[in-house]
Amino acid sequence: QSVLTQPPSASGTPGQRVTISCSGSSSNIGDNNVHWYQHLPGTAPKLLIYINGQRPSGVPDRFSGSKSGTSASLAISGLQSEDEAEYYCATWDDSLNGQVFGGGTKLSVL
Amino acid sequence: QVQLVESGGGVVQPGRSLRLSCAASGFTFSTYGMHWVRQTPGKGLEWVALISYAGSDKYHADSVKGRFTISRDNSKNTLYLQMNSLRAEDTAVYYCAKDRSGGGIGGMDVWGLGTTVTVSS
Q1: DSSP letters of A8-38?
Q2: pLDDT tens figures, B1-60
Q3: How far apart, in Å, are the Cα atoms of B64 and each of A5, A32, B39, B81?
Q4: What does the alpha-carbon distance between residue B46 and residue A90 come to, in Å, rounded to a whole number?
Q5: Are A101 and B44 a contacting pair at CB < 8 A?
Q6: What whole-number distance in Å separates Cα of residue B108 and Cα of residue A45?
Q7: Given CB atoms, is A1 within the 8 Å cutoff of chain B?
Q8: Do A50 and B105 touch (CB under 8 A)?
Q9: How many CA atoms lie within 13 A of B105 on its CB side?
């Protein structure tokens, strides 16, 4: 059981906007930056968002991130079929003295 | 191009040891923190360990503390994970990942394709 809580699944139709939440505590999200990763089966995970809302070069601006207090969220607008993947939030946890990942959210594009 | 290539995985009996390697190329390896992350079958990503750019700071997940040790050789551009006293629950695909920062909390922006470790008698 992760210290970061994500919904196990999310879904949307092409063109829609979906949001994935990540809930933590004062020792992790409340005190540290949040990063988001996209993972397709059989491939290497990909950094989507770093430091709460920054996009690496090459990541479409359809992907955005935000953080407030002890929670963070990833928004995907203009949903596309290739967005179907597992999404993970991650941050540092001061109490555990290590990185932590959320449990992951499987996004389905209907 | 920027690349990480893991090696050293395989099938090993419970209680035995294994050492994973991760060869880095295309960037100044000695400048960045490096991580090991694993994914067990049917489960999510689990952070395993972090080492700072110079190797002076090391952090391990509680699940592997005392059994696994992360290290690096900046002269060889290589990251290592020494895994001792392996258990069935260590069976996973192990990824090495480069951090955006030297300290290791900037986000993992480059990942290898992973190496599979299976612990079974």
Answers
A1: SEEEE-TT--EEEEEE--TTTTTTS--EEEE
A2: 999 999 999 999 999 999 999 999 999 999 999 999 999 988 999 999 999 999 999 999
A3: 22, 23, 14, 11
A4: 10
A5: yes
A6: 9
A7: no
A8: no
A9: 19
